[in-house]
Amino acid sequence: MQDIFYMKKAINLAKLGEFTTAPNPNVGCIIVKNNIIIGTGWHKKPGESHAEIHALSMAKGKTKGATLYVTLEPCSHFGLTPPCCLSLIQAGIIRVVIAIIDPNPKVSGKGIKWLKKSGILVKIGVLSKEAKNLNQGFLKRMKTGLPWIQLKLGVSLDGRSALKNGNSKWITSAESRRDVQYFRKKSGVILSSSQTILIDDPLLNVRNCTTKNFFLKLNKKIKQPIRVIIDSKNQVQPFHKCITSMGEIWLARLKKDRKIWPDNVSQLVMPKYNNQINLMKLFSYLGKHNINNVWIESGASLSGSLIKLNIIDELIIYMAPKLLGNHAKPLCLLENYLDLKKVPKFIFKDVTKIGPDIRFILKMQKK
């Protein structure tokens, strides 16, 4: 029970870095001696000290004989910072409690072996589920090369995403739109399609907002996620709002055009599949460029394609208490299934009321 108590505190510390640590994982650390916390730390951003080093610094040399709690296996390699394992050994830590093993091939299991070889007692697996939830994108990217992929959809009670004339502003409430900002800010990429740009001309950026667990000061400059637009027919133009707003833009295309684009815009030539962007190759490309989390906001066509590919990790649906009618636009374009055994299936992970709406978070059942 004592280990769980202190690991919970370490996990809460790790959450403080959820907007700043990418592409590194979120990590929290607690040092305890004689049942007293003598050091705490969390990883803030790449290139800065790891959580363990911050905690050791706070403990000010009083760590001999202490126990250290950390949400992720301490590193054992020289990267942008020295290995944490060496610092723990030199500090006289006698016991290390770890939530999860680091899947990074440079680290995985090596830090634990190093600690054990030095005579330090190691316990693994305390609150591992909670620790994994902190770093779903990092863990998936390290294991598969692909980022964690979330698809967001706004829908009416009758399963419609827009009126017959295409008008979709606004199906969901202001509260839901503020809630979306939290997920956008946590993501390395916000992804959409040229169709969405042509119809809605959205900014697709993180805006100032306040929700229960998320606060961005109005006068604080917000680091924007990379916006990736799937634009196989080169339809996005330099005058569109997402192009003229601050932040990096990647246009995923089958070939470049010769237009003059702002410095923040890159044209990515991607492989094709059936005369469209090969989506699997695109996500693999994002993974290779250290993107942990992708947040997708798109229309029915791209949403349907993603669901059919069975690559969505989470489907996030905001349902508004409205009825749009039989001729309104569908949520996503899928084939006309004749067998219920073949339809895409999901598992409810969370159901939360957001203002007048309901937010569903669903996990896709892999085939």
Give a verbal description of the structure.
The protein is an alpha/beta fold and 367 residues long. Helix content is 26%, strand content 27%. The protein has a nine-stranded mixed β-sheet. Helix 4 (110-117) links the parallel strand 4 and strand 5. The two termini are 38 Å apart. Residues 210-219 have low confidence and may be disordered.
Q: What is the fold's blueprint, element by element?
A:
Layout: H1 2-14, E1 28-33, E2 36-42, H2 51-59, E3 67-72, H3 84-90, E4 95-100, H4 110-117, E5 121-124, H5 128-134, H6 136-144, E6 148-155, E7 160-162, H7 174-186, E8 189-193, H8 194-200, E9 210-211, E10 214-215, E11 226-230, H9 241-244, E12 249-253, E13 265-269, E14 272-273, E15 276-277, H10 279-288, E16 293-297, H11 300-309, E17 314-319, E18 329-330, E19 346-354, E20 357-364
Parallel strand pairs: 3-4, 4-5, 6-16, 6-17, 8-11, 8-16, 11-12, 12-13
Antiparallel strand pairs: 1-2, 1-3, 7-18, 9-10, 14-15, 17-20, 19-20
Helix pairs in contact: 3-4
Summarize this structure as a short list of keywords or feature phrases.
367 residues, alpha/beta, 9-stranded mixed β-sheet, elongated
- Fraction of residues in β-strands: 25-35%
Structural class: alpha/beta
C-alpha geometry: elongated
Mean residue pLDDT:
88
The oligomerization state is single chain
